[in-house]
Amino acid sequence: MTTKSSSLNKVFADLPVTIFEAMSQAARDNNAINLGQGFPDDPGPEDIRRAAADASLNGYNQYPSMMGLPELRQAIATHYGHWHGLKLDPMSEVMVTSGGTEALTSAILAVVQPGDEVVCFQPVYDSYLPIIRQAGGIPRLVRLEPPHWRLNEDMLKSVFNSKTKAVLFNNPLNPSAVVYPREDLELLARYCQEFDVIAICDEVWEHVTFDEHKHVPLITIPGMRDRTIKVGSAGKIFSLTGWKIGFVCAAPPLLRVAAKVHQFLTFTTAPNLQAAVAYGLGKSDDYFLSMRKDLTRSRDRLTRGLESLGFPVLKSQGTYFLTVDLSPLGLNESDTEFCWRIVKDYKVAAIPVSAFYEQDAVTSVVRFCFAKKDETLDTALERLSDAVRGRKR
Predict the structure, then answer these.
(1) 3-class SS at 291?
(2) Tens of pLDDT along 13-61?
(3) Which parts of the sequence belong to the Aminotransferase class I/classII large domain (predicted)?
């Protein structure tokens, strides 16, 4: 039987293959080093992996609580209380999901109804817009620009109105690697309160910050405690991206509806991984500070190497990524053309930041992942040694 394309859900049927999958496939096809997709090339903390193995062999392997193991929900609440001074009731304000993307989906579907407007900041993570549209919502896009990618009064004034139901805010911001200062958060909070808007905060990179930049959750800004849904990810905190353990934290009226959505998406999440994450969240501060120190060293290694080759690097404040702005180089190609060229000719995969825009894209910025071993970064730099000189006008 041939299915008519017109009978399929056009929100999803018309979506192209994501740039992450396209570039990762190109990396495989060209035997290239993949500095595009955001995953480390080490296996993750051994003690946490052993905790998961022990829980699988000796623990409970049937359906866990839909809301998450009680010990993990308590660990999440304790962890955020310690790091951010955020007091959460683990039983009524914390939920565990199968990854951050599911957490975001549960939050969006819980809040957005047909006709609601949702403010999103470009560059925007690729799952946001399809889920908003599936809920019947209308994305209102704000264009952020290099080199600082900051919020300002004019951009918020242009999109917030009486129809605005929610805002999706990613901090630290992937792909531009910005950790937003408190003044930007207070500006956004003021607009959320003035227009009675719910903030859905994608904060999966909250522990991956560098130098003196400190992540401040929007939910901790005065006036935002009862109108914010905070999303976190154990995969990003522990460099175990395949585990797909997400966190949703919100006031009870918001969390109750998000939980009803979660019930019909994945319902629950592997209990052995939940047990291991609960163990991990209880690790001493030294673990988290050491993780940041190691990633800072990798960031600096790739930054120095790219700059020595003539690439204008924008300083990364957080996440696994740094970005390069090609515009000063006078290359006769866009960021997308540059990425296809280097994966084919130089055997290194990167991601064009224009892929994170739906309209009025910034077309000169490329994202590289530095969460790799030294030898991986050094080999990539060797391969890219002529990538700038070989394309100048």
Answers:
(1) helix
(2) 988 888 888 999 999 999 999 999 888 888 999 999 999 999 999 999 9
(3) 32-384
Say if pTM beats, i.e. exceeds, 0.70: yes
pLDDT at 300: 98
Cross-strand partners of 23: none
- Residue stretches of the chain with pLDDT short of 70: 1-5, 389-393
CA 19/CA 390 separation, integer angstroms: 25
**Kind and range of the H or E element at 355?**
none
Helix (H) or strand (E) segment spanning residue 78: helix 70-84
Q: 92 is written with which tokens?
A: 């009524």
The Cα–Cα gap between 64 and 277 comes to 14
- Write down the pLDDT at residue 281: 98
**Residue 3: both structure tokens together:** 């299915």
3-state helix, strand, coil in the chain (%, to 5): 45, 15, 40
Q: In the prediction, which pLDDT does 370 show?
A: 97
Residues in the chain: 393
- Shortest CA distance to 169 belongs to which of 144, 135, 194? 144
Q: Give the N- to C-terminal CA distance of the chain in Å, as an integer.
A: 53
Q: How far, CA to CA in Å, does 21 sit from each of 4, 26, 126, 164, 255?
A: 26, 8, 12, 32, 32
Give the Cα separation of 198 and 141 in Å (integer).
16
Could you give phi then psi for residue 208, rounded to 5 degrees?
Answer: -100, 75
Q: Which of 204, 210, 237, 181 is closest to 303 using CA atoms?
A: 210
* CB-based contact 219:234 (threshold 8 Å): no
